[in-house]
Amino acid sequence: MSAAAGLPLTTPGQGRGLLDVLDRRYLLRLIVRKELRVRYRGSVLGMAWTYVKPAIQFGVYFLALGVFLGQREAVPDYAVYLFSGIIVMNFFGEGFGNATRSILWNAPLVNKIYLPRELFPVASLWVSAVHFFPQFLVLLVAAVVAGWRPTPAELAAGVVGFVIVALLALGLGLLFGAVNVFYRDAENFVDLIVMVATWGSPVLYTWNLVHAALPEWLWRIYQANPLTAAVELFHYAFWYGGTGRPQSLPAGGAPLPPDLWTWAGIALVVSLVVVTVGQIVFRRLEGRFAQEL
Question: Which residue intervals define the domain ABC transmembrane type-2 in the entry (predicted)?
Answer without folding.
Answer: 45-285
